[in-house]
Specification:
This protein has about 110 residues and is an alpha/beta fold. The protein has four helices and four strands, in the order βαβαβαβα. About 45% of the residues lie in helices and about 20% in strands.
């Protein structure tokens, strides 16, 4: 199963490397191909620079930078529209929802949605 993980990002410079590391580990094990779409909602910190560095280090990371701050939902929609794969998992940038739960979601989806 090919999976796009979409994450709206706002002032999350400190947590992005951890998030991407966890996502990459989980998706490498549970997907045949994956991408991690990080949408910077014009953060005031160094989030965009961090996204560029992560995209250089991880081939599956894609960065999108919005022209202005539009809010989480619009940033999320932009990421969904940018996603390459049919299966899209959305997460927050603060690790509130652990990436380790993604395989559970994918198993349920493979069994057929209700």
């Amino acid at each position: 199963m090919q999976v796009s993980a979409v994450v709206p990002v706002y002032n999350s410079e400190a947590s992005l490397a951890t998030l991407v590391g966890q996502l990459a580990d989980v998706l490498a094990e549970s997907a045949t191909d994956y991408e991690i779409v990080l949408v910077d909602d014009r953060s005031a910190d160094g989030s965009w620079v961090q996204i560029l560095e992560l995209a250089d280090r991880h081939p599956g990371v894609v960065g999108v930078r919005l022209a202005r701050n539009v809010g989480e939902q619009s940033a999320l929609l932009c990421g969904i529209r940018s996603a390459r794969f049919e299966v899209i998992v959305t997460l927050d940038d603060d690790l509130q929802h652990p990436p380790t739960e993604i395989p559970v979601l994918l198993r349920e989806l493979a069994e057929g949605p209700d």
